[in-house]
Amino acid sequence: MAVTILPPLPDTDDYLPSRSKHYNASSDASDSEGGMSLDSEDIDSRPTKRMKIGKHTISRREIVVPGEPITDETQWMRGHGTTTNLSPAATLITATLAGPITPTNKLLSVLPIRARYTPEVGDLVLGRIVSVEKSQWRVDVAAPLLAKLSMSSINLPGGALRRRTANDELQMRRYFQEGDLLVAEVQSVGSMDGAATLHARSLRYGKLRNGTFLAVSGTGGGGGVVRSRRQQFTINTNTGATGGGEVDVILGVNGYVWLSKHIEDSTFGAGSKDNTPSNSKAGGVHLGINNLDEAVSSEAYSSQNNMIEEGTRREIARLTEVIRALAEGAVRVDEDGVTRGYEVAVELGLSTEGATVESSGRELLDQEFRRRVVEGVLGG
Amino acid sequence: MPASASTSQLSPAELSYLHSSLSSHPPIRPDARLPTDFRPFSAETNVLPNTMGSAHVGFADGREAVVGVRAEVERTAQVAAGSDAREDDTEMGDTGDSKTERAQGKSSWISLTLTLPGLRDDDPGLFFLEEMLREVLVVPSSTTSTTTAAAAGSLQDGLVINSRWHWRLHIDVVLISPPEGSAAGSYPLPLLSMAIHLALRDTRIPRLKSEGEEDPLADDDWEASVHLYAKPGKSRCFAAGVPPITLLVMVVGGNVVFDPNGTELAVADGVFAVSIARAGSENDLVSILAVRMLETSARDTFKGVPRNEGGNEWDVVPGVWRPKLGGVKRAVLTKVMKAVLGDVGKEIVGSLEAFVVQGG
């Protein structure tokens, strides 16, 4: 059928997407906790429990809105997402974010339903160039403010120790132009405004090629990318219906995800293929600080894709939908989840359809299918 | 809020990847759909209490459209010279040509207002979209297929009450979309068109107690009201057939792709808005009412940087994105028309019909 018309979503006072509620209802409660973030665990396992805060009880699932008074009892301490500054005596705790109240012992905090990414030093992020300015780029990293990538924090072709010349400044669009995607690390965070400064002074950072981009929503109660797990990894997709070879996955902490064909290059370690040319002149030669300039040729900044087979493209599309299904199911994305979700998707795809090229992947749009992928990730 | 939230500019490497994926046979879409697959959406009708017909349609990406339809009675502007003669004719009981002439409505009796987030209400794109959705509703009956139904053929003709009064139809559409995300830059046309279609199918006009040339007096009984468009099993209606549906069709590398999302549109060789309607009373015949070409955003993109910089600037290097130049060939347009008139058009009309029969 070309078009599927679904019944409207039922009315719900639940802050989580209805799909996630659905799998909670159908699967074992203890199972469903597995993939949820630590913060939301206790909310999920006791959905009906009400807590007594101040004069009125609040359902753990109930959300507060900014400006809503939570309690004026002094036994509670204010946590993230709350303030006491609005009341003259500074006793009334008021919400400053929209989301469910999350008490931790006597600390009351509000976990936002949806929030932008808060940059922290050392985060691996994906960004998109928004503008080219004088000797710096502005990068969208899904943070409240645009991040800054200065000319001096990238490897310029011709050696790491080369002086930046006026000529380089004139040719800034040769390196990154508007719309380009790059992977970088947060070098510092502004003390006043929290704006991030990025650096890409490593061979594993740089321009992204040979793949496709997707964004899962930022931090908060919904989806997002799990912090402090492996963020760059390779999935073997030969098990899929079409046999796609290896696919590189980069999960940026900011919720941006890059899926690309794995380019074999023996010179560098795993996960560092993205800014290095496949036909590098330095191929096979041990890379050190002395011959860094050979690897960072102007090719590192080209946007030419390699030849990518149709099978790989199909499996990348399947992986994209798996990650999207996880994000919509309010599951945080990490390596295990993606790998397991992909396995479930392949299995379901093989069992439901005839696993022909024609049909592979089309079932991914099906709500039931997505639910089963999410269930498989949480339960398995 | 960064400015990038609304711009969905893709990098040349992404564009090149997308374009070659969509150009392969069969096309590989980024969300693993088949080329003729539409995004699933949820729909409900009769949601707004104070309207005569309403619909609520939502996509999985969080975009929702709410449509309300209201009708009011309005005095018909009299044509100074012609009106007398025309009235004389009807009073003489002439059932021939003058009768049909009297029943001609004006297309301006149907107004459509769109509210899109992030767009000023005087935005030219908004007017373009409004008019594109409205004009197919008011196609004169002669161009639609011949209908044997007793009711008037086209919508505006059905709105005539008598020579002095007519109904005026207001269609208000509100699009709600998340402030950012994958939906950014996506053309909301299919969503709006489906929502308007379902709202019009749901619309009912009060029955009039007055007859002939009397001033209109509406019946209080809502149960006695008449559907604007014919419902299965009901004989009385204002307009025959079903409201038209506008589809968004994209051409890329010789492939015809239906219902493209925002990222797919970024690499389109050509984008068409094709309005279709059911021809006659059977489901299996679809006719095209209007075709519009839309500007593809693939034109204003940066070109990719090849690995070897020495080459000629105009050399075609595989894997390097080049902005789209030129137009669309006639043969491609024919291909689009054939695809729409083929199974896809029938299936869409069929599934909407099935929804209306079940749930409406």
TrEMBL record, chain A:
Keyword RNA-binding assigned: yes
Chief location: nucleus
Stored Pfam families: ECR1_N, S1_RRP4
Key words, A-Z: Exosome, RNA-binding
RNA-binding is among the record's keywords: yes
Record-linked InterPro entries: Exosome_cplx_N_dom, Exosome_RNA_bind1/RRP40/RRP4, KH_dom_type_1_sf, NA-bd_OB-fold, S1_domain, S1_RRP4
Gene3D superfamilies for the chain: 2.40.50.100, Nucleic acid-binding proteins
SMART domains to which the protein is assigned, alphabetical: S1 (SM00316)
Segments forming a coiled coil: none
Region of interest: Disordered: 1-51
Protein name in UniProt: Exosome complex component rrp4
The organism of origin for this protein: Lithohypha guttulata
Species classification: Eukaryota, Fungi, Dikarya, Ascomycota, Pezizomycotina
Name of the gene this protein is made from: rrp4
TrEMBL record, chain B:
SUPFAM superfamilies assigned to the protein according to its UniProt record, in alphabetical order: Ribosomal protein S5 domain 2-like
InterPro entries according to UniProt: Exosome_comp_Rrp42_subfam, PNPase/RNase_PH_dom_sf, Ribosomal_Su5_D2-typ_SF
Subcellular location: Cytoplasm; Nucleus, Nucleolus
Residue ranges, annotated region (Disordered): 77-104
Entry keyword set: Cytoplasm, Exosome
Main location (coarse class): cytoplasm
Gene3D superfamilies, sorted: GHMP Kinase, N-terminal domain (3.30.230.70)
Source domain of life: Eukaryota
Similarity field: Belongs to the RNase PH family.
Name of the protein: Ribosomal RNA-processing protein 42
Species in which this protein is naturally found: Lithohypha guttulata
Gene: RRP42
